[in-house]
Amino acid sequence: MVNDQAQMYTLEGFAAGVLMLLTAYLVLGTTTVYTPGDVHITDMQLQQLGSDALAMMDTPNSHGDTNELVNIINTTDHELFDDSFMANLQNLTESTDTCIDDLQYNASVYYRAASGEVASYPLATSDRGDLVSREPAVRVTRWVTVNGESVSEIPEAADRRNPQLVLVEVLLWRG
Amino acid sequence: MMDDSGMLSVDFLAGFTIFILALIMVINMVPGIMIGLESQNIDYDAVAYRTGVILVEDPGWPANPPWELKDEYHKDDIHRLGLAVSANTPNVLSRSKINKFFNTSFFTDEDYGQKVIFADMPYAPYAYNIALKVGDESLPPLGDDVPKRSYGYIRRLVKVKEPHSAELDLNKTEHKSKFEKIAPVNSSITNTYISIVLNYTELYDKSISDEYRMDVRMEPVEVTIRNFKENLNDTDVEEVCLNNIRFYKEGVSGEIPFGYDEPDDESYEYKVGGTSRTLDYNSSLIWDLNGEDEIYLKLNPPLPFAYETDTVLMVNMSLKYYYDENRFNLTKEYLGGVIDYTYDTSANSPMNLPTLTDGVLEVCVW
Amino acid sequence: MERLNDEGQWIVLMGFMVCVGIFFLAVIIAQSTVVGQTTSEGVLEFPKNDIQDLRSEVIEIAKRGGTSSLKADLKTLSMARKNAVVECSITPGAVNDSYYEYTRIILHFNNGVTEFDETFLLSRPKTP
User: Fold this and answer.
1) Predicted TM-score of the model (pTM)
2) Residues 54 through 83 of chain A touching chain C, CB cutoff 8 Å
3) Which of A7, A86, B277, C61 has the fewest CB neighbours in a 10 Å radius?
4) Stretch B180-190: mean pLDDT
5) ipTM of the complex
6) B133 neighbourhood in chain A, CB within 8 Å
């Protein structure tokens, strides 16, 4: 009789304790998996910024003015792309004293070659923008109608046309 | 029985202690669940993003006639404050919308909360800071100073559509040549005009996209005539009268009814030599004009008949030239003619078409 | 063993209740995290910028008369680089009025997550 009861309460306490600890452990394990919500937010901000930057380069400043991005691709001007794109990314108002993020990018141009295949050539990269070991990046793109015949990077065999539609693709990440 | 209960309480004590110890351990673990979870911050970023999209990609509501033309009494008609020129032109902002939006004497804190930020709960408004830089010029930011702690943030790159204008500089020969006229030899008086012709069909050219279009429904028309007095031939002309300004519609006889004699800041701005005047102003002796040699006229939107797209509106500035009747051998040169308000960009056209200036908009919400 | 039933094992019961409490808390917390994810991920997932860009480029193609090689470029590159089906049909002179000639543009975009269709008119003044 005595032995019976003495074991009963202690066992109950053990059982309850193990149950609670196990649940807490389980819950802790599952919820932490769901948490990295803010990672997406910085990605979102970066994607919007990159997309805006390309859009701004693709908008002439007055009716009939030259389009900067078209001009860059027609002449394959790596430096002008770098200057203009970085200037856009680093444009800030005075109200936030946020330090300018160290952004890195790698831009390339995709075009349709003969026989319907898609080929590409690099347009420009930032200082540490080579793709060997990079952070998780966001991808922003922009359609551009260029004069394919003047783009030396597209091989002649690849059916250069005027006009030709190409896709500028920029991978963007925080360095 | 006594022994029984004594044994029981020791057993119970042990069991309960183990239970309590486990409970304490579990309670200690619970805050760990919350680590890395800052739902507040996530929410603020989403609000900042939404505000950025509304400001940059939306023309606001009502869109046509646009909200920026509403006055103090009709402020409640404004539902949403967007700065885009039109829904088809994301990232291109209108200068007049910007001016109205950043006018803190017109909009209150509450208006911004309800019409841009769209705070979910009226009793828990968000604090915000909206800053815009156009070119190198930073506008005074709206809202509070950005805090040192974390806040929701978005940055949008924009272009601002600067207003169009006509700038006739009579010191430029290519401008002046169109206005130099010679009166018949025997005349002693010439009644003439400097006329600004606005052909709405041409201005609303739909093949020109919204960001470059001159839309008199929502954008002001600005005309400056420089060096008028300086270029009058004073050996030929004895006296010049600058009479009133009148509006005419092509195909309709007589002037358009308008409060010409009332000073009306909302519909026009007329300056002769730097002094504001009504459209009825007439000056008999233009030689005596003081100050700058400049005639400036700004017509605020919407212009008369702006919603009838086939209208041709003429804004006529009457001029009267008197010649010395005793000296018939003079050439009798006078200035007058037509300023065509069009998309013409050739050298002798006085037009400055809309241009886009790079800018950046930042929204912080906390 | 009869006594065992009498006691009701209330310590275990209390432990069980605490477990249920923790579980509820976890469910609520998990829910709030999901909210944070969907707003930012939803933004990333929804191809707002792609569609805006596509729309402006299709207008550009239409202004050049709807050259078929440009449409082929658009279709091939969308499929290869964005995994999106893009179809556009450009009909110049579909509608006319006294001042303008309108080009009808029918645009279809589908990237598997988002589908977008639009029909609109692009106007060009008639040459007198």
Assistant:
1) 0.81
2) 55
3) A7
4) 82
5) 0.80
6) 91-94
